[in-house]
Amino acid sequence: MATELEQTLFEDELQTVRCLPEASRWTLERDKSVPLGLFATMHPIGKPTDLYKARIHWTEYFGAFSLKFIDLNSGVDTEPTAWPKCLGFRPSSLDACLPWTAEGHGLHPEWKNSVSHGFPRVELPLQHALLRLQHSLDNSYDGRGSR
Asked: Which residue, of 71, 81, 85, 109, has the fewest CB within 10 Å?
């Protein structure tokens, strides 16, 4: 459960990330179902019509975040075609096997104490999450997942 301090820090940081240059390409909405949650609709730099809606949330704000992609039409998180094909993203498994996600650490508990795969402790978790996602879309995008 998120603390009051974590919720305040999250809300403050949300205002800050809206001012980032990259934010002009994002639609950000609070996920009201969890205290530390956000929906971010974004696209690869070279494919502005390929929109993806990520659901990002934390149980502890300075830990790994959970990442799922949401189907833009149905709103479900169980559709492989809602996922971009990017390095570490696994549309057929509906997860991201990356050291900066909770799902990646769930798949690889050995990463917890790893120097190269440990979750980075960052000062601005929301900014870190959004910029990592955008970087993945901009640098390793290879189309949409398939069924």
From this structure: 109
Q: Of 50, 52, 44, give the one whose Cα is nearest residue 135.
A: 44
For residue range 27-84, what is the model confidence (pLDDT) as tens digits?
A: 999 999 999 999 999 999 999 999 999 999 999 898 889 999 999 999 999 999 999 9
CA angle 142, 68, 91 (to 5 degrees): 40
Domain 4-140 bears CATH identifier 3.10.110.10: yes
| 95, β-bridge pairs | 90
Supply φ then ψ for residue 91, to 5 degrees: -55, -40
Distances (CA, A) of 127 to 83, 91, 134, 146: 21, 24, 11, 29
Q: Check residue 146 and report its DSSP letter.
A: -
Pairing of strands 52-57, 27-30: unpaired
The CA radius of gyration of the chain, in Å to the nearest whole number, is 15
